[in-house]
Amino acid sequence: MYEPSHADLQRRAGQPPPLSPAAFVNAAQYANVLEGRFKQLQDEREAVQKKTFTKWVNSHLARVTCRIGDLYTDLRDGRMLIRLLEVLSGEQLVSAPQPPALAPAPALTSASLPLCPCP
Question: How many whole angstroms separate alpha carbon 36 and alpha carbon 15?
Fold first, then answer.
């Protein structure tokens, strides 16, 4: 035997359907609440992942007495990232930077001096 649903009973009783303008405002507010909660959970998850990865990086960099504080800023220029890759691979990827060699100064000759009129 057929039993009417709750929505059927509401329509028969003269009540507005569930998606009336008033219900839509509530649904929109509810959607905003859900969206805010979703964003909050995403931010929390990202913070946990950042903290976990930072600890993992520091556990490996401890072998060469290095440490990062903030994952994004400390790896930005690539130096600590190269150190991490060197630790993980066991190879030296970049040699120590050498100061640039000074080129000998060109010899001054009378031909290279500007001609000045004598006073």
Answer: 31
CATH of the domain at 62: 1.10.418.10
Per-residue pLDDT of the chain (119 residues; tens, 9 = 90+): 566 666 666 566 655 555 545 555 677 777 887 888 899 999 999 999 999 999 999 999 999 999 999 999 998 988 999 999 999 999 988 776 666 666 666 665 655 555 555 44
Rounded Cα distance between 67 and 92, Å, is: 18
Q: Which amino acid is at 47?
A: A
104: in domain: no
Report how many domains make up the chain. 1
